[in-house]
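Lay summary

Proteins are chains of building blocks that fold into shapes. Our project writes down both the chain and a compact code for its shape. Here are two examples, one after the other.
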Amino acid sequence: MHLMCRRWLVSTLRARGGHFRGFNVSSSRNTVMTAWVIDKYGKNEVLRFTKNAPLPIVNYPNEVIVKVHAASLNPLDISMRGGYGAATMAMKRDPLNMNQSGSEFPLILGRDVSGEIMECGLDVKYFKPGDQVWAAIPPWKQGSLAEFVVLSANEVSHKPNSLSHAEASSVPYVACTAWSAIVNTGGLNKDNSAKKRVLILGGSGGVGTFAIQMVKAWGAHVTVTCSQNAERLVRDLGADDVVDYTAGPVEKKLQTLQEFDLILDNIGGDTEKWALDLLKPWNGAKYVTLVTPFLQNTDRLGLADGMMQTGVTVACKVLKHLRKGVHYRWGFFAPSGLALDDISEMVDAGKIRPVLEEVFSVAQVPEAFQKMEHGHARGKTVVTITEDLKE
């Protein structure tokens, strides 16, 4: 709540100081921009570089246009390139179903952005042109592998001063995903996490490496599963106990440890068959998985039947485990400028650092996608945009 009040206070002070902003539209600005797009779903060959992508415009008074300095890739970008979630995304873009199938093309991928505010809608008071910002872009919107992107102001936050744009672009999507799962769904926060026991299944990827640092900064005891060659990384980030999943059945080793207050599952598959037995029963403990069948169901069955199937599935699992005294939950990405405000403070305080694995130029986007497809990432894959386009 304090962050919302702070945003309101800044907005009020700016308005009283005569800094009311309308649309900062330049008549000399082009109507096209450079971007990487896809014109159909498929593998890497569908990626196309163009200098004629439509330039985004402010359509609503709460929107801002951001000049992209850097972007980063997530596994979701690989999945979306292949059409994952297309039915649900189409509904979000066109709830009245007025457009023809395929109207999302040319589609720009990329869920992370760090850049500079260029234009603001009439109702935007918390930001001004020139502000350095970062954001996680909802998957139904055009992405950040382009010169410019348009976002709602409540999805945007001021970038940490201590990070470069390349470093900052590696954080927002995994941060908002971890925040949504751990805080909104899991119920932990900076005030109640001290001495709580947290298990992160799959801790060396983007969400895992961020989650380790966040809950550790809040005073939790953190146990992580990963491969042996990632142990040093997760320990450097704050993991207290590390279990190597390549050295035999991981559940056997975890069963020898104390029970947990929260489990964050980045792996899915068979893990939920045994993971919930590791929770403290009848103590409010929660298992939150980020691997859900929701989008697969809607892609396969259509929106209505897919949502019905999803509801039945999650309800059955919730009731099944509630009888054992533990809580089963699904976690989802949720864009939030307010969460990023808090995270920005933690970054500048030295409590969270970005974990980058490799940085590519804008000309190397296909190579960046290929690297992502190989899996077993030890941090984020970043693409620099603005500086490369100047060259």
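And here is the second example, written the same way.
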Amino acid sequence: MKGLAFIVALVLVMAIATTDAQSICNMPASDLMSCKPAVTPPEPPPPTATCCSALSHADMRCLCSYKNSNLLPSLGIDPKLAMKLPSLCKLPHPANC
């Protein structure tokens, strides 16, 4: 669920943010966009160092608040792949996310 929350935030930023001046959960739009390839099927690459670094500075609890969004599949993001991001980035998981 943690990874899903990160990607939901990514989706929301893609929908409403057009510049780095806007951010969500302490992540600028461009940082969130750096994670999209890692959660887009059919054969996503591993998350980049930029993606993992951005996630490491994010407000994890804020990102978790987006975990139940229905937007992910409609934007080509695989929720199962999204849920793997924290582990792939070797990041700690917030409790109850």
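What can we say about the second shape? Helices lie at 2-16, 29-33, 49-57, 60-64, 71-74, 79-88.
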